[in-house]
Amino acid sequence: MDVVRSVCRSALESRGYRVIEACDGLTALELFEEQAARIVFSLVDVSMPEIGGVELIRKMLALRPDARVAIISGVDGSSLVPVDLAGQCFALNKPFTVAELRALVDQHRHPAAAVRAAKA
């Protein structure tokens, strides 16, 4: 299991969130398609195998236009959020702290809601 993904999962579960994980973009999309109604916030790495992060986010938003998503990147994430995704997609730059992760998710959703942690 990826270390960053594991830390994200632990940090969010300890806060009362339910986390659904995927190791690649294709799996993440399949899980999102199956559980879209239950997922209230998604964490997506910009460089995921199978389907890249931005493409995955576009597909997720096509399925559920009200979905809220954070894109995680090792480069300046704010430049990775396409203009048409602004307001629905937020940037979280690596390295980030557990406190920063929790603050971002808390800002957009309540504890015990379903959260998707994709490859981070």
Query: What's the name of the CATH homologous superfamily?
Result: Response regulator
Pattern of helices and strands:
HEHEHEEHE
Percent range for β-strand residues: 15-25%
CATH class: Alpha Beta
Helix vs. strand class: alpha/beta
Mean pLDDT: 80
Description:
The chain has one domain: Rossmann fold, CATH 3.40.50. It has a 5-stranded parallel beta sheet, with helices on both faces. Strand 2, helix 3 and strand 3 form a beta-alpha-beta unit. With 120 residues, it is α/β, with parallel strands linked by helices. The termini are close together. The C terminus is likely disordered. It is built from 4 helices and 5 strands, in the order H-E-H-E-H-E-E-H-E. Helices cover 37% and strands 21% of the residues. It is globular and about 30 Å long.
State the gist of this model.
Helix content is 37%, strand content 21%. By secondary structure, the chain is of the alpha/beta class.
Keywords:
Rossmann fold; 4 helices; disordered C terminus; five-stranded parallel beta sheet; single chain; alpha/beta
Q: Which secondary structure elements does this structure contain, and how are they paired or packed?
A:
Layout: H1 3-13, E1 18-21, H2 25-35, E2 39-45, H3 53-63, E3 69-73, E4 89-93, H4 98-108, E5 114-117
Parallel strand pairs: 1-5, 2-3, 2-5, 3-4
Helix pairs in contact: 1-4, 2-3
